[in-house]
Design goal:
The chain is built from one helix and eight strands, in the order E-E-H-E-E-E-E-E-E. With about 90 residues, it is mainly beta.
Length: about 90
């Protein structure tokens, strides 16, 4: 059985195809860290079962969600997944 695949836009490894999120960053790249432009570490999480995004920067929950982030020094952006979760995609070239 062949699964359809696409490539992580940062490291070029094969990931499961997702037509809704064609530039999603793989977990291995995300494990290297997600940062603000200033180099502060960001952690994203859902507010509750029915959606919403919150983030913490350097361990402090912020009132504003930071949608623009950097993974491996590449500009990315954050969206709430269609069925929950957080999806980080590479920004347009």
């Amino acid at each position: 059985m062949n699964k359809l695949a696409q490539k992580c836009p940062l490291c070029d490894i094969e990931v499961d195809e997702n037509k809704r999120y064609p530039k999603y960053v793989c977990n291995e790249c995300l494990d290297s860290g997600i940062f603000t432009k200033e180099g502060k570490k960001i952690k994203y999480f859902n507010i509750g079962l029915y959606g919403g995004i919150k983030n913490e920067v350097d361990g402090k929950i912020t009132n504003e969600v930071i949608y623009k982030c950097y993974v491996k020094e590449v500009e990315c952006y954050t969206v709430e997944g269609r069925f929950g979760g957080i999806v980080i995609q590479k920004a347009a070239d």
